[in-house]
Amino acid sequence: xxxxxxxxxxxxxxxxxxxxxxxxxxxxxxxxxxxxxxxxxxxxxxxxxxxxxxxxxxxxxxxxxxxxxxxxxxxxxxxxxxxxxxxxxxxxxxxxxxxxxxxxxxx
Length: 107
Description:
mainly beta
């Protein structure tokens, strides 16, 4: 049986791939699903970082079902997200959606 992760209960700052910062308490890490769950989470928005919008692919051709890669629209920047009000009881993040994760030192 695996021992509990010593980081559980630590204060975490996380920046998503969309450049939005979240801060909360580490509730769980699921290695099999590659997810991280935080509890009592606040969203601090982009804090001056541009929100990154991923590239958009055109719809597949209705006859062939193929996507013309030459028509992919580039991602956009320049969008800013304000800090959220309130506290989320729990948020679950997929590992592929996390850009940066920082564990705060215990005070």
